[in-house]
Batch of 2 targets.
Target 1
Amino acid sequence: MANEENVTNENKPEKQTDNNASDNQQKKQQPNRQRKPQTRRRQYNRRRSSGPPKKKGPVFKKISVVIPLYNEEESLRPLFNEIKKAVKPLKQDHEIIFVDDGSNDKSLEVIKNLASGDNKIKYLSFRKNYGKSAALHVGFQEVTGDVTITMDADLQDDPAEIPNLIAKLEEGFDLVSGWKKKRYDPFIKRTTSKFFNYVTKVSSNIDIHDFNCGLKAYRSEVVKSIKVYGELHRYIPVLAAWEGFKISEIPVLHHPRRYGKTKFGISRFFKGFVDLITVIFTTRYIRRPMHLFGFLGALSFLLGLIVNIYLSISWFVHHISLSNRPLLFLGMLLIIVGVQFFSVGLLGEMMVHNAKDERDYSIKDKN
Ligand code: UDP
Ligand code: MG
């Protein structure tokens, strides 16, 4: 990652040059009053050896703001104004990509209006509602900047956080997620979200508090390489971490919804849970299914075997009849299920073997 190199180079303390070394020696030998001219000479020498002092430029050249939206007609204009206000003082160029996820209100009209007055706006409109993940996915394909910001369209995320997110990225991270430390959502959503975040954190080993914050900043290679589909937008940090990207988070301002209502109903909780299983499976075991199914199969088979050995001994040695022992069914069931898990694992391995593909590896650098 060329950008990361820039970051580390800029942050590195200046190397001790030979000039400095000899200065130090002289400092020891000479009385204190000599120090001022020495310092000046040192500055002069340094300037001569490394040319004029380098100006610190921005690490990123262009910011792409991606906004998925579904029926958010009232929020779009104020959101656009706030984004403009946030990016204006920055040195980078910018683009704003609106992805209309099949809205049936006037959202598209508002976007077209905005776009006619500002050539930094790009927009895309789905013919029907495909979901936030799909909207993000196509938005990501349109990104031309080297840093990408995502945010919700409902004004709950605050565009004023853009510079803070970018500053954190510049520390050398690939993805910086917003953390809605003080959030303005209904109680039920806040508590279930806490539970999801906890489970996700434990099962993915990623130490952040808020996985599903709409406000995030990415080095653009992240958004070009992760595959966000279904409703996996909730787990983007997990997908990115699994590709080897470095993740961090900062607390961000959060606001109550100003217009309209949330687009995700109560079904989000069930879907979120199923998606968590998908994410864990696809990120951990997709390339080695036997490690999961083989383990479960072996465990089940072994338990079944122990049960049946016990029953066999009691039949052979103690002559206890098996006709009225429900344990027998459990033993048989465990053995059959074990064999089935094993077979599924083997089938999975065959599929992985046939689907071997270079493109599936996340490559950091090459010449
Ligand atoms: N959204 C979308 N497609 C959908 C549902 C939502 O593009 O099918 C957008 C929505 O317009 C908003 C963002 O995703 O910009 C977050 O949605 P919402 O505010 O309803 O979610 P919540 O804040 O309740 O989690
Ligand atoms: Mg919202």
Note: Confidence is low (pLDDT under 50) at residues 1-38, 46-53.
Target 2
Amino acid sequence: TQGQVITCKAAVAYEPNKPLVIEDVQVAPPQAGEVRIKILFTALCHTDAYTWSGKDPEGLFPCILGHEAAGIVESVGEGVTEVQPGDHVIPCYQAECRECKFCKSGKTNLCGKVRTATGAGVMMNDRQSRFSVNGKPIYHFMGTSTFSQYTVVHDVSVAKIDPQAPLDKVCLLGCGVPTGLGAVWNTAKVEPGSTVAIFGLGTVGLAVAEGAKSAGASRIIGVDIDSKKYDIAKNFGVTEFVNPKDHDKPIQQVLVDLTDGGVDYSFECIGNVSVMRAALECCHKGWGTSVIIGVAASGQEISTRPFQLVTGRVWKGTAFGGFKSRSQVPWLVDKYMKKEIKIDEYITHNLTLGDINKAFDLMHEGSCLRCVLKL
Ligand code: NAD
Ligand code: AHE
Ligand code: ZN
């Protein structure tokens, strides 16, 4: 297949919110600096549903969504040295080129090398897509497009992992789990004995709980409007649960009263701008830090009284938990292999690519954390 167009199955999003269509898609060979990957397993993340909804300013249609996956390198383009056919890999929507201003700064995990292309749904080389259906181009998504049996990505967006690792599990290390763990370890840097509040107990929020527990937090307060989440959340380290619907007071006041003035760290894992405000305002005066993880729709804006910041609260955000993707995803895989981090516990459903619309329906049910699709 090397150097040839591959025809395979992929789920194409033709229009916002219209069911995805399983199509025979043509996948062009990788050009210089590109890698073609046979995707074996992909999970769905809330961000896929967000872009599909039409509320993502970078959302382009038709496209192939998906960004939490694992597979095997099928072929590589000219000049690709770090991976070869047969390598087991995780595609990384946050690239790491190790050469750009961002990568060299030592201050961020964001990479500037291919970001303009991935945001425009094309490859860097020629600003074209490698996907087509009957000659019509289909846009890439987040530089990964994993809802396809084969995808083409930039070489700076590929993490080579332990070939012994089960791909049907470690696919989750492409997004949700690292995001939550890293928000705690890299972005907030939670210290032992801290009090933590987590808004939204989906996969990302539960991974925050897992990270906070491992960082030695003494109180981990889960906040969710779905009370069924508490039983699940206990297994990930949540020690107390608050349902905003059980209270008349604003949720930030409930938390301030519960914690003698506020929490040391809070995390917003929903994508709701009024919850982001509550998450900041439940932080302790003088030092409380709030981390935004949730992705909010185009046009949404955050607000608070500047006095909240003047009096020492800190507002931060995180992408992929601050992890340097190519360097640290293999390390996270090794931690999973050593049983130092959970993955299996986040997988509540397993389906096939043909069931992808059902998998999106499941996302809106409280019982579903991650659904893994076999391609
Ligand atoms: P999810 O839908 O599985 O979880 C969201 C949870 O929030 C659910 O349990 C829901 O019941 C709860 N919730 C909804 N409204 C609420 C409210 N008003 N108050 C309290 N709880 C509420 O989603 P997920 O896959 O865990 O992702 C969470 C968010 O993180 C999404 O916005 C996603 O796009 C974003 N995300 C960001 C990054 C990043 O790098 N920054 C990475 C992954 C995901
Ligand atoms: N196009 C979206 C951006 C959404 C967003 O912030 N994405 C996160 C990852 S979410 C993964 O589930 C991210 O990494 N952002 C940094 C980046 O470089 O995109 C919008 O709303 O504009
Ligand atoms: Zn995601």
Note: DSSP finds twelve helices and 17 strands in the chain.
